[in-house]
Give the backbone structure.
Amino acid sequence: MSPNGDPRSFLAARRAIVRSDERAILLFLTIVSLIGLAMLLYYTLLVLEGLPNPIPEGPQP
């Protein structure tokens, strides 16, 4: 319990800790999802650049 013996302040402190943990988890998940999105876009562009050009440039002799 808290130094002054009030259980309500102890519970309020516990809720603050849980909220900070939830924020840290949400921040971590947001960062991981942004990294995943960046990797998806990078590899998508890498594959698309490797494909042949669908329309030839100019007449073929």
User: Anything to note?
Assistant: The chain has a mean pLDDT of 83. Residues 1-51 form one domain.
